[in-house]
Amino acid sequence: MKIPITLEVDGEPRELSVDTRTTVLDALRERLGVTSPKKGCDHGQCGACTVLLDGSRVNSCLLLAVAADGCAITTAAGLGAGAALHPMQQAFIEHDGFQCGYCTPGQICSAVGMLAEAAAGHPSHVTASASAFESDGEDGEDGEDGEVLLTDDEIRERMSGNICRCGAYVNIRAAISQAAAHAAGADRSAVPHPHSRPAEEGAS
Amino acid sequence: MSITVSPSATNAGLTRIDGPAKVTGTAAYAFEQPVESPLYLHPVQATIARGSVRSIDTSRASSLSGVVDVMTHENAPRLADASDAEYAILQGPEIGFRGQFLAAVVADTPEIARHAAGLVTVDYEVSEHDAELRWDHPELYAPEQVNAGKATDTATGDADAVLEQAAVKLDRMYSTPWENNNPMEPHTTIALWNDEGLTLYESTQGVHPVRMAIAPVFGLPPDDVHVIAPHVGGGFGSKGLPHANLVLTALAAQRLRGRAVKFALTRQQMFSVAGYRSPTIQRVQLGADPSGRLAALAVDVVVQTSRIKEFVEQAASPARMMYAAEHRRTSHRVAALDVPIPSWMRAPGECPGMFGLEVAMDELAEELGLDPIELRERNEPEIDPETGKPFANRRLLDCFRLGAERFGWDRRNSRPGSRWEGRRRLGIGVASATYPYMRQRASSARIRYEGEGVYAVHIGAADLGTGTWTTLTQIAAECLDVGVEQIRLQIGDSSLPMATVAGGSSGTASWGSAILAAAGRFREEHGTAPEAGAEVRVRSPRQLETEGLSMHSFGAHFAEVSVDADTGEIRVDRLLGVFSAGRIINPRTARSQFLGGMTMGLGMALHEQSVMDPRFGIVVNHDLAEYHVPTNADVRDMEAVWLDEFDEHVGPLGARGIGEIGIVGTAAAIANAACNATGIRVRDLPITPDKLLG
Questions:
Q1: Taking CB atoms and an 8 Å cutoff, what residues of chain A touch B634?
Q2: Which of A122, B82, B154, B391 has a 20 to 30 Å separation from B4 between CA atoms?
Q3: What positions of B carry a catalytic annotation?
Q4: Where is the signal peptide (chain B) (predicted)?
């Protein structure tokens, strides 16, 4: 059965008619010729297909295209401003945050989505307040509206849905740290969230 | 005229030339190549491990709207050469392993193809199968030779007698599991037959090796097979040779001339038809005098192959040249099972083989009360103990010295289980690494002056993440003495001059030597002010004068781990690799490749294991949720450094290759660190938490 839908892909409205079994990933790659998101597992296990859907990172292989009708999708091909690369992409190049490049568009979309999550105060498994379910009375914050300080441990944890078999994690982390600092500098001076653990405590 | 690459230009850490295309996702991999109205293939795989197809019912699939073709062994084109069972796809009803292709559906869309493939039913004639590797398997045999053309067995002196009388003797069993390469980009083919022949967009480590392997299978002259692979999403050996997916796709395309047929293996399918590392079972015996000098060593290895095609992992091979011992013996025995066909996975032989040997050396050091590095110093051979040839460049001890200083080896407490931090036990370990220099692989390159300062450099090389686009551009620029922006490199196409496979850590050395030779010839023939169109094509010279030398790269791995005393959870807190690999062309991409090998070694140490259920002949954890590879959270403080080297024995390029050595000693170093932390010696990988709860 075919259903007509509209997807806004990298700022451009695209109309198409899809098999109801078609995923967003296959709609992008096989129907619209947008091959920036990659297919590594088709099961939401590797993250290579990560795109931003209405600003949030999603595994596009797990999402049916008919369910994304009307949504705005940003791929790594549409992240930059025109021909200019997004600061995250520039950081990946400078830090050599990839080798074969197949997981890279997903890593980069995931990283951009992750920065927004951290800025919005979303806790991760290694965020102290989240793992301990405690509220820190001293600073008066409840952990939801404050920005999470992106320590190495926070980045490691938050980026672990994106597998890189070439093993570029050391450089991916360095690239994201740089881009995060850039983003913080661009917006405002970053306010470290008091609930984050220092990097050296580490183990999750 | 010979050109020597001066370190100044190539040592610059140029960022990847393909970087912008990779970070935007616009670099086109095989499945993404634009072809007109493609068709999609989905296979039907055997669900038994051994037997044959009694009948196959394709009627429901064929009648589905949108299905263009259903192909089985009854209607598939006959291959011109079906002697290689891996490529003899749909040539008969026999089933050699679970997962083997039995049919294929070709349809207008991937959804329809997949649905239709599920409608094909197979009636089997089931035979008894055997999919379980055992040390005492009754049908073990000695193969004629093992991978890389190495001898099955070797013996010098009388190892067994000397071991018997040795003052200190170690006799241990080690094992490494079935491991799957799992590159992020699945094995993928787009095949198109037309009057010009067969065009293949293929995810491969070598366009020319694919052409040479596939042309005779289809009875085509090599020039009629055009293989294109400008960008490759990782391979780690599994794309070194074509696999059944290519043949299946090409067969379908043969029936559907003029239409492009696309087929990407699913992640699950990759576990049965794309090669893997055989499990190994190793008996390592070391006999030493009280000072730690080895008098004898014996390494006996048991591996598996598929009953339909032999591949024998040469895991005993590194023990032959690694340490001095007057009496030495090695052997390989193999069991032919009803399992998928094993093949190359990063550092075949050296990687699993050095796990057993290097953990055994750690155990021997413990037994002797010696520092593990000191033990290796005492057993450093003056010449290659296997061949008697002098080593061209053996700097293993330099790697250890540099690493020990950088890592803080002196902080290691030799008494296992003596360092605690809260409820975590800390430990440090070390291991050696080695990888041979693969000589005599000749590639060709073409250089043409395009005018306006631009030089076209053509070679059928591959970039699977190795940095080829960048490093070959750098080498060409340096050899021609022009800027990198003046070089227009083309790779990944069989219409370009012949290039060897990106395997055996030999790519850059082979291709770079060809470019270097071509650049020399170009300047000789056309000078420094060439006319537009001036061109040379040169095959790189063989390095025959090095036959009298033993040529290997070496490395030292250092690991620090922490183990939760209550749960057994192990973390690799620090990992350092120090390498001697000849000239490093691009430090930025080289460091990444070393770190990548070490990261895969971390996976080997702690995570990776394809679990075979011998009752059914299937790897039960055949996806990335259950076949665990390292994720970002698993990798903490990790660094790779190298000795400043130029290996004149490998020719004017000075580089030996770096693709594999990074993985070789990592797992042993981590296992040795785990023992230092806990006192528990894990001899079978991976080191899962249950094994550390002593």
A1: 160, 169
A2: B391
A3: 660
A4: none
